[in-house]
Design a protein that fits this description.
Arc Repressor Mutant, subunit A, mainly alpha
Length: 106
């Protein structure tokens, strides 16, 4: 199954969380002009773990704090996350991770 076969919301987020896979993540990332590296996958794992624990997608401030706690302060800062996910780290990371759009993202 490819991204083209899956239902997306008006912002391009997966409608069904169970449709997500690493292959789909790669396709979503490519659509966002991002080539996923191990550093991207670390953040994808952080947002997916956060969603599993709390049932919601992290907003930027929470993503920075959670990333710092899990991966260290060198990765838990806005500049690092913005370099990986330009245009809104929480929004783009959650989109690639197959999660709903964070509540306060436009």
């Amino acid at each position: 199954m490819t991204l083209q076969d899956l239902p997306l919301d008006k912002d391009g987020f997966l409608v069904n969380l169970n449709d997500w896979s690493p292959t789909i993540a790669e396709e979503i990332a490519a659509h966002e002009n991002i080539a996923l590296t191990p550093e991207h996958w670390e953040i994808i794992d952080v947002v997916r773990d956060f969603y599993d624990e709390f049932g919601l997608s992290p907003v930027n401030r929470v993503l920075v704090k959670t990333t710092g706690a899990k991966l260290g302060q060198d990765k838990g800062n806005s500049i690092y996350l913005m370099k990986l996910f330009p245009g809104g780290p929480a929004k783009i990371a959650c989109k690639i991770a197959g999660l709903p759009k964070p509540n306060n993202c436009l």
